[in-house]
Amino acid sequence: MEKLMEGLNEAQQEAVVSTEGYIRVVAGAGSGKTRALTHRYAFIVNELGVDPAHVLSVTFTNKAAHEMRRRVKRLIGGEQDTGFITTYHGFCVRVLREDIHRLFYPKNFSILDVEDQKTLLREIFEDMELKMNEKTFKRLLDKIGILKGNTHYVQQMIMRGGMPAADEAGDLDGQIIQQYLKKQKRVYGLDFDDLLNFVFVLFEQYPDVLSKWQDRLYYIQVDEFQDSSLKQFELVRMLAQEHENLFVVGDPDQTIYEWRGADPKYMIEFEEFFPGAQTVFLKENYRSTPEILSLGNALIKNNYFRVDKDMLPVHPPGVKAVHYHGKNDREEAKWIVQQIQSLVEEKQARLSDVAVLYRAGYLSRNVEQELMAENLEYTIFGGFKFFDRMEIKDALAHLKMIAAGDDLSFSRIINVPKRQIGKKRMAFIRQKAEAEGLSYYETLKKYEDHEQLQRTGAKAFIAAMEELKERKKELNVSELLQEAMQKTGYEAYRREDGDQERLDNLAELLHSIVQYEQTLGEDIDLDEYLQMISLYTDHDREERMDTIKLMTIHTAKGLEFPYVFVIGMTEGVMPSVRTIRQRKERGLEEERRLAYVAVTRAEKALYMTESEGFQNGGQKKYPSRFIFEVEEDLYERVGGLDPALIEEAEDYIRASHHLKQEAPQQGFEKGTRVHHPVFGIGTIQSIDEKKNTYLVFFDNLKAPRPISRMFKKLEKVQ
Ligand code: ATP
Ligand code: MG
């Protein structure tokens, strides 16, 4: 018990022992929310004696879930099954693996990532003899995403005995989408949208299934709750209904997925959804130096739609944040790399203490080139697309063939290496399979002696697959992969092909599997492994080496690094001009939150960089407004930034997307009694016209709070 409470402040301890009812923890970046959540999990298991099988803990990414599992295991011992520390999608997979048969889908349904989705589209385009290109695919996938915004289409997919015929009247896109759903059904594939939607339909149609899961999950906790979408919120709300137990932590200022449906209102209006809910505030910041913290606070204060919160630094003063301005992007990249080199040479930092963060993937290229030139090791998280690489997908398709024998994997590898089964013979297999309701592989087996399949590698392929399937039980995943690569001739084929990078990647894949087998200490079997992998995005790769970390800000969410470079801080890039165009003021605020997330990742030192030149569209580059929004004494400026350029930049910012300040929503007078969704009831003590805020003394708080006059949720008490 003491050990569990060690290294937690009073408020965190309160959060840890508040195990019953509806509870939210609202606090800024680096205040120890995730730490409180992790310890609470351990408290429930160790001190309340509740089996982890009854505790659902939802985090945002696989990486975060993996990290939390590791930490929890340290606190509760490694033997327990912590499978319910997972992501929303991971949880849905768990539910569906157990209960999807109620919707007449097999339990070994496959999970489709974007590449799989494109493979399906490609087949449809071939069948319909349409011209295809990436752009069309992307447009169609977006449309499919919109269709899957609600659950209506699921009804059609779960109908027994195949899908009804495509709507004849539909336009071409409509017809393609119908074909797509049909194909999806044929391979029993679910994409990420489907995972949640199928669970909803399952729970709706089978109350007994819902109640089984409600019953099982006595304790539910959610990290990064501010980024929950309506569907995700509904899911946890539904699950928590029986035991009336839900614990959420988050920071509304870090909502960065509004564009994908996230809505911080579930966090802010928590008490309205769950009357009587308890709220815990955390005030100390344990992550960053006071310098970094003040910069972050100064930046986020520019947002109107927010609840101001004070954060106190725990660490002693350190160094000032830096704004570097370069004459061109080469210079910017060179400066960054020099800084990293000197940090390492002065033994202040290891390479892995350094993170380079950016608004969009393409921004990494310059820094990458410079790092390569200087022989500095780096890893790209997210966007590296490790698991999207052809050879990796091929290798995994072999494993999937052994596990499930699904059509997608079959199509992927049947003719790699060449087995003389090209388009024509595939059409034969497809046609037979569809007519007889068999999988492609079953069809191949049935017709291996058919004249259509003479003089092909079909027989050898079948022999290899059958042998591998037989040995599936006795071999672990890494051994199975090795055998598969050899027996099918894939490895030899890659060797002949001679691309060293691909061979290295395959070796790396094998290495990662061995690592999982060793570190997780759990015997993962093939199905579990594939399930885990299919939920992966690339940033979930294990970090092993001492390398600099490069990633987008979205990927860096929830993480922390001693030295952080936020690069490409150019107006139009960050804030992104596209976001502002699409979502105006709200878009700008989300961009600012993104910048806030970026700077608050830093523990010891923060560098914001940008440079002159021209953007891709030809627009002249200026420093981001976010830099100008922060008082100049909060950072040190390095590199020659001409005052004339600053002026020009400010003119540009004003002119290009000048956002009209809305008139204040409400003109309350001094002394008005008001209600606030988080702080409750209070009195307006004074009004600051310049900052456009009220200073409100809330009945439950010891000191007044500045609340923006734009904040719509501040209401007069009648
Ligand atoms: P974010 O909003 O960025 O997700 P967070 O609120 O989840 O941040 P944590 O990641 O839990 O913050 O904690 C930030 C850092 O502070 C971590 O390194 C954590 O170990 C440390 N920390 C948290 N609480 C304490 C404490 N009471 N004493 C010492 N260190 C702490
Ligand atoms: Mg956190």
Automatic annotation (TrEMBL):
InterPro entries (alphabetical): DExx_box_DNA_helicase_dom_sf, DNA_helicase_UvrD-like_C, DNA_helicase_UvrD/REP, P-loop_NTPase, UvrD-like_ATP-bd
UniProt keyword terms in alphabetical order: ATP-binding, DNA-binding, Helicase, Hydrolase, Isomerase, Nucleotide-binding
Keyword flag Magnesium: no
Top-level lineage group: Bacteria
Residue ranges annotated for the UvrD-like helicase C-terminal domain, each copy included: 290-558
PROSITE patterns xref list: UVRD_HELICASE_ATP_BIND, UVRD_HELICASE_CTER
Keyword Cell cycle: no
EC numbers on record: 5.6.2.4
Family affiliation: Belongs to the helicase family. UvrD subfamily.
Protein name: DNA 3'-5' helicase
Naturally occurring in which organism (per UniProt): Halobacillus kuroshimensis
